Amino acid sequence: MPHQLALIASEHKSTAAKCGVTARILQSLFFMVVVAVLLSTTAFAQQNGHYLQGITGLEDGSAPPPGFYVTYAPYLNLVNSVKGPDGNTLVNIDVNTVVHNMVFQMTTPKKFLGAWYGFEVIVPVVNTRLQGNEVSPSAQSAGLSDLYVAPLVLGWRKGQSTYLVEYGFYAPTGAFNPSNSFNPGLGFWEQQVQAGTTRYFDKKQLWNGSVLSTWEFNQTKSSEDLKPGPMTTFEYSFGRRLLHYSMNVGVAGYAYQKLSADSGSAVPAAVRGDLDRSFGLGPEFKYTNLKRHVSFDARYEPQFGVQSRTSGNTVVFTLTYLNMFRPK
Fold this sequence. Notes:
12% of the residues lie in helices and 51% in strands. The chain is mainly β and 328 residues long. The protein has a single domain (45-324), classed as monomeric porin ompg (Porin, Beta Barrel), CATH 2.40.160.40. The chain has a twelve-stranded antiparallel beta barrel.
């Protein structure tokens, strides 16, 4: 289209100018209509939590072995619609959100309660952060989001199974303005508890399955009388190792549910008492090269069964530098 307009302008400048003005007017009118429709969906918006559904996959019920790990994990949420409380489509849209996560994790050689002890810090940077599920194509917000700190990560290994328990919290370090639909931060403190397990089904430990539960407990938002209800996410996977254990291929999915409704005077009347939910399931590929100290992971999870929130597809990539400690 831009090349065609340039050609017309070179031959018929005056006509192109009139057409250009008309096109801009029509485009502006169309944009205003789209924004009006999208803003009308805020009546069905639920407050998001900090945890990114589908951010983990194969063998996520295991803590990493003793060592130091640095991971870059871009999380892409490719939104194509907004769903109502009954799962009906309120509007079709095309908005992409990217969260650039830098993960710093360490598992020490020391043991606590019979488990390897570790800790974790996640520094997320977003190009657009949804405050709830309000969506506007013109709204952009980039910057540091809310920092995640996990001072307690415990991992056990018993027989054919591993177990993971983690406690952490999100600090409202990202910028937040309650009058904006998009913010780098969410504007509230949140505590998070995780528990999971990975099971190896054969003696060679090639076939593997895992379940990881995440529980979110939120505080009231700053400058706004709204307390998000508690939320839970169950992530699961099933895979098989190949190429001398360096590759793990399988499927991964999740189920998310808000456990109780948001509270406070700032909760929209139309959604008071509502509970949002979503599900996702798709393929995953993971490759690890211990000699080069690198690991790569790719996961794609289309969403389904969504209610009272945005819906689309989730894509996650991870690139990890591994510096494992030699066992004594």
